[in-house]
Structures are given as structure tokens and as C-alpha cells.
Write a structure and sequence with these properties.
mainly alpha, 2 domains, 3-stranded antiparallel sheet, 4 helices, about 10% strand, elongated
């Protein structure tokens, strides 16, 4: 009987591709594995939540807002950040 290999070496991109394919198979056809990025209603976050989402400090969020890198809305006297803008900023940081 043939034994399976003990180690498999994959690049980061190959691993991501493999995981995405497995998620698609598990969820079935027609189900989006990334629903937050395509919801019709905008997701809104506080400064602290936005900082955690992007992996930066709350002060960095404020600085990026002041420089115009991300937009915010003021609701009930507090700044709120839209998920779509944060995803764009996250993608810029990755590239």
C-alpha cells in the first residue's frame, strides 16, 4: 500500500488558492465566501473597530482620515468608518 507524503510544500499563493477552493466546495455553489465585501448595506465601524480590522492603531486611523486615505462619517458626534473604504485601504497596504 502506498503511503501519503508526510510533507507538502506550497507557496503562500498556492495555499490561499487551495483554501479558497476548499471553502467553495464546503459551502456549495452559489454561496459567496466573502459576504461582507459584497453586502448592499454599508458596514459601519467605530475608530477602534476600524483600527483592529486594519491592524493599526486608532491614532493611525485618525491620521489616515485627516490625510484623506480613508473617509469617515460623523454620526451622533462620533466618527464612523465604512467597511468598503477600509477594505480598499487594506488592499493598498497589501500591494
Amino acid at each position: 500500500m502506498e503511503q501519503a507524503p508526510k510533507y507538502v510544500f506550497l507557496s503562500k499563493e498556492e495555499l490561499i488558492e487551495l483554501i479558497e477552493e476548499l471553502v467553495k466546495r464546503l459551502l456549495g455553489p452559489g454561496i459567496n465566501p466573502y459576504p461582507a465585501a459584497t453586502d448592499t448595506e454599508p458596514k459601519i465601524m467605530s475608530r477602534k473597530q476600524a483600527a483592529k480590522f486594519l491592524g493599526v492603531s486608532a491614532n493611525t486611523i485618525t491620521r489616515w482620515n485627516e490625510k484623506g486615505y480613508i473617509l469617515c462619517a460623523k454620526m451622533n458626534g462620533q466618527h464612523r468608518y465604512f467597511l468598503s473604504d477600509l477594505v480598499k485601504q487594506l488592499n493598498k497596504r497589501k500591494s
